[in-house]
Specification:
By secondary structure, the protein is mostly helical. The chain has one domain (about 5-60): Orthogonal Bundle (434 Repressor (Amino-terminal Domain)). Helices cover about 50% and strands about 10% of the residues. Strands 1-2 form a two-stranded antiparallel sheet. The longest helix has 11 residues, at about 50-60.
């Protein structure tokens, strides 16, 4: 089984806090597919730096308010 990237995120939480935005709507806003948003939320895919900034801007927060780094010792 592939190892998950050590990046954590609050994408789902932020989507729900912003009027229950759909995964498809977020994907459209940042230029990716709904499937990509699902993979990001599930921690199976780390977004590009550009996508990370786009996501943070959609929600009006900083990148570190959306994404975090989990050291292996914390896992």
């Amino acid at each position: 089984m592939p190892k998950r990237p050590p990046i954590t995120n609050r994408v789902r939480e932020l989507r729900e806090a912003h009027g229950h935005m759909s995964q498809a709507a977020l994907g459209e806003a940042i230029g990716v597919t709904r499937q990509t948003v699902i993979a990001i939320e599930q921690g199976k895919y780390s977004p590009s730096l550009e996508s990370a900034f786009r996501i943070s801007r959609v929600f009006g927060v900083g990148v570190e308010d959306v994404f975090g780094w989990q050291d292996e010792a914390e896992a």
